[in-house]
Input
Amino acid sequence: MSPLELDRDPAWLSREELDAARGRLPILYVDAVPVRVDDRGEVSALGVLLRLDGEGRVCRELVSGRVLHHERVRDALLRHIEKDLGPVALPRVPASPQPFTVAEYFPTPGVTPFHDPRQHAVSLAYVVPVAGDCAPQNDALDLTWLTPEQALDPGVQAEMERGHGVLLRQALAHLGRAV
Amino acid sequence: MSPLELDRDPAWLSREELDAARGRLPILYVDAVPVRVDDRGEVSALGVLLRLDGEGRVCRELVSGRVLHHERVRDALLRHIEKDLGPVALPRVPASPQPFTVAEYFPTPGVTPFHDPRQHAVSLAYVVPVAGDCAPQNDALDLTWLTPEQALDPGVQAEMERGHGVLLRQALAHLGRAV
Amino acid sequence: MSPLELDRDPAWLSREELDAARGRLPILYVDAVPVRVDDRGEVSALGVLLRLDGEGRVCRELVSGRVLHHERVRDALLRHIEKDLGPVALPRVPASPQPFTVAEYFPTPGVTPFHDPRQHAVSLAYVVPVAGDCAPQNDALDLTWLTPEQALDPGVQAEMERGHGVLLRQALAHLGRAV
Amino acid sequence: MSPLELDRDPAWLSREELDAARGRLPILYVDAVPVRVDDRGEVSALGVLLRLDGEGRVCRELVSGRVLHHERVRDALLRHIEKDLGPVALPRVPASPQPFTVAEYFPTPGVTPFHDPRQHAVSLAYVVPVAGDCAPQNDALDLTWLTPEQALDPGVQAEMERGHGVLLRQALAHLGRAV
Output
């Protein structure tokens, strides 16, 4: 979720309250790597969002967002996928709660491969096959489907912020693909 | 796969050759727990096969079978699901090769919770959502869909052979359900 | 972590602030199932804490506690294990961040198998082998080591609160044991 | 395990019998990525073996070998680690049977990222912390400990055969490291 969009979110917390909490507690997130799979379950493409960052540069991101109070993790995944890919993406949220990794985002770069200048966020990361039509929503400029090989391209990786390039590669590794 | 069916399998190995290999090498298997999931990915039911065992008693089993020479693990899963649930089960084979557990079946009971009098088999176990119509095939008498609660019923568990009752509970645990 | 102990914690948040956050955000936790393993990595015993609950009844719990702001998940695991098992438990915190499950504790019982009357907590659950001397700390009355078979005893399960009995069984399932 | 060493193995199967089985059945393997971890469980180094391949070129490999008939997976891991790293490596074999991936080695390159000219092998892959002294055994020329950064070096990757470079990166991804 981009900074802009976060502020527009129908808020359980006011922006001031969220800012206060962010200075005090790790914030629980979910990250989703949307994928296209064939009939054998083999991944053919991975979905990456294009946005403008705060300084007007194009950057690439995975689907990502906060888990709300009293919200199940699987409902947070569904909500953020719908928010970013639209209402007919037909996501197949994993039946098991076991994430493929846990990404720890720190405000200070270098503590982990993941970085979020706004907050200390801890994110449960899942690969989510989507079977329906996907279209970029809100402030996303585009949604790109990359083959596993394209996802490893240094140019693509360089445009991914906050460590999402690493997360995409970790997802590919979990999928049994070359990284 | 039942003993009878195994022998009927279009064989890469003759029965004599398979019997010889079984006395010398661990045999690679896949086990699948077929599940029905709702739109949120929550499991609503687990599929269990009813068969007659060698002595004419009704027993319950999961989908299970050998991985063939030069066969991908995901293709073995698809083949055994089609063999047991029919051609229109529409299985969603996991995109990742990581199984939820590895079940080691020994000819001697008690070495592990899993037992196979015919052989030392090592099985990669996956939960596989199926979205289509399922019908028992070949020598299966019936296919029963159990709720997670029903799957824990001691009567059901008592009818499951070779440790498949334990495997079903391990699958439920992996799915985040009470066991 | 018991309610009493939580309040005694050297606080990043005052008690009032934590109470306010608990009403607004899911709180990130870690749960640890301490185990004894033999030289082959096989689990021989699982560690369970005995405490008095708010009404003076004996109850059993796993090691559990909050992840603090700017704290790595692995450091939270180490801190809570030291707090509950003492400074020479020699825990072997997993090298991978992938938890065996994610337990979602809701204030309303029945939403998931996990329940916490104080808050919506989401907990990353790990099995942690401990190689050193363990002794109950603070308000724990005792630390009991249970064999995998004893851990399944209905009497033991009945004394475990907040769904920790289910979590213990899910850990056993992940360890390849009968449940 | 190198081709030479395989032939020297105290055989459950004669070499002829093993060769025959290899032409008929997938052979079950274990792959181990030996790692050094600090007190917090963080990986500091990964162990890679140096050998001469059949044509006298230096190549790098992970610990790898067959699971024998009637052998538990964890005992196969211990046996191959002792065979390659010596008797006092003090490996901490994982308590759970869940591998971080399953590597499918095909005689034909390109089917998967993994390749074995001798056979169709399916390998359960584990990260195994070793706490003791390690020394290269048998036909290994050396054992090198690489930092996570060094393990990603293209020169190192180019010397790893059969897809072990990919497996090393998949292990790093599972460990939450940049890849």
Summary: Confidence is low (pLDDT under 50) at residues 1-11 of chain C.
